[in-house]
Each structure stands twice: as C-alpha cells, then as structure tokens.
Amino acid sequence: MSTHSSARSKSQHVQAIEALEPRQLLAATRIMPLGDSITSSFGGHDSYRYWLWHSLQAAGYTNVDFVGSQRGVFGGSPANSDFDQDHEGHTGWTADQIAASTVEWARSAKPDIVLLHAGTNDMRADQSVASTINDLGTIIDRLRSVNPSVKILLSKIIPDADNASSIAALDNAIPGLVNQKNKTSSRVILVDPVSGFDVSRDTFDGLHPNESGEKKIASRFFSALAPLLTQSAPPPPQHVPLTGTTFMGDLTPTSMSNGFGPVEINQSVGEGSSNDGERMSINGRAYSRGLGTHAGSRIDYRLDGKQKWFAADLGIDDETNGGGSVVYKVYIDGKRVFSSNVIHGGDPIQSIKLRISHARRITLIVSDAGDGTADDHANWANARVISYNPDLFV
Checking CA distances to 165, which of 32, 197, 262, 278 falls within 20 to 30 Å? Predict the structure, then answer.
C-alpha cells in the first residue's frame, strides 16, 4: 500500500463491532440504550450494556443490534471491547435535555426497542419529581412520533448516595407513568434494578455502577427484553474434510466486519474496495494464503466439531513500514482461548497453534491497541483449521 493510501486509511477507517455471534440475514432487532452516564459508563468500566449484550448472545438472542450516535464509554475505552458498543447515553444530561434530542436520535437510529434509564441528573439538579416524570413521558411520546410501535423498557433509577430520598420518590412515581403510557401497539414495560441494589457495594462512587452493579442492571433489562425477542437459529456448520488442512480463506464466514474496507482473502487490506490489496508480508516473509484485516475486525465461522487445531502466523503487514499496533483474539464457541500481547508493525511473526477439538464456532478478532487504528493492517497469515480422522486417534 502506498504512503498516500495509508494516510487515507487514517481518516476513513471506522472501528468494527467485536460481537462474538454472527448477525443473521433477517433484519436485526434494533435496540437503543438511552440515558445518561449510567447508560454511557466511563473509561475502564464495561457498562451494563456489555453484560446485557453477552447475556443475549449466550441465550441465543443473536439477531440484535445496539444502536445510537454514541460508541464505547465516556472518557476512555471500556474494560472489554468485545460487544456491540453503540448507544445513546449522554453523561450529565437531564431527562429534559434527552427529550430535546430524542426525535433526532430516533430518526437516525430507528430503534425497535429502547432501554431508558434517565432522571438521575434531574434529581441532582433539584428538579421536581413531577417535572421529571413529565420529561420521561415526553421522551416516550417523541419516540412514538418516529416509530408508533416502538417498545420502551422504562427503568427505575438506581440509588444515589447523595440524593437517596429524591431518587426514591422518582422511583415510586415511575410505575404510574408506565401504567399511563403502556398500550398494546407500543408497550412500555417497567424494569426494576433497584431491588437488591446496594449503593455501597454496587457503585464505585456512590452513584455509578461497578461491575456487580452493571451486572444487576443488565440482568433486569435482560429479563424484560428477552420475551420481546426471537432466538436466532445458528447457521448450519460448514463441511470441512475429515483429514488434512483447510485454509480459512476457503471457508464462507457467517459474519465478517472490518475497520477499513472489506476483509481481504489471500492478500493484505487495500484501499477500501474488494480485491485491492497486496501480497501479504510480515517481517520480510511473504504469504500467499491468509486473511487481511484492519482493526477492529471480526470474522465468524461455523465448524462441524471435527477439527483438531487452528493455526496462523500473526503480524502487521510490512506495507505499513513499521506502523500500527494491534491485539489478536481467538474465541471458540464464545469462549476466549487466545489473546496476544500488543503486536506492533515490524515485530517478529507470532505463530500460534490452538487446540479446538469439537469446536462449533470460531471467531477471529483484531482490536486496536488503544492508540488509534491508523496502519493497523493485521494479517492472519496461513490461517487454517487442521482436521483429523477420529479413527486414527485413541
């Protein structure tokens, strides 16, 4: 790749979602997490959205898409990035501020379901319970003005050590709003993360949830959300020969996303169109087989459980002239079995061979190393599964 094209990728790349499950061909259910900093969370934390996403995937609700104009968390990177990070959480915003932008966000994201947790900042600003309930009602009305059949999961507000009484008063009023706004064509469903939530144990600052608090919020949203969704049937596994080696480029992914341009087969990432890369090269060694990706990327394959090993040579393509830094991850049946250290452009080739006996799903992920994704041209060189005849093994 030329110096000009590398510079162009710096401004045009878009980080991909690191979901562990493939999205189906049917239209995904679009879910908008909406609220303030409890929806957004902060650098170094996961947010309840991370735990909810993985709960949905584990339960088979894979055909979902988190949507919104925001991504990740506020003020840094999330503790873990392997989830759909889109949302509409705005740190410090009151319900009336959220209401003022609701129509714009809804027109852009087109949510089918909204997860609404808002009102904390209203109470902290000494606004009245009545005005906040009115603002929450306005949010619901404006969501319906864009999508008359939208479903809203309206959450009670988790405790705030500094405003316990006002938060409790708001929480006592929220069920009444749910009853008032709920209708058959556009459900409003109460979510209650407050029961069992301990502000001293489940927050890191008396207000914002820590991991245990995030999990409690996610659990309550999951219980209300799951009945509204359809479990996704996984695509059938691909037939892979019982003996020998099969290169990943010869298999059809069930899902594939890339940070810049398409994933390339048997060549490096190019300018942004298909089949415009160069011959793969890592630390001076050329490869004719493999997958050329750009962080963040995700590739999912279905297997038939008869493969014994996954192997690949990892490294950033020499076309970056030493630029780029990435982390490689491999998941087997949703469980991470490999995560590299940070690999920089010009580093030695890292060869891996992972035992994957009985695997039904393999996911290959490349994440940026926290310093941006410019020049993150990550190769899975000679990526392959190695099958075997079970009769030959005791």
Answer: 32
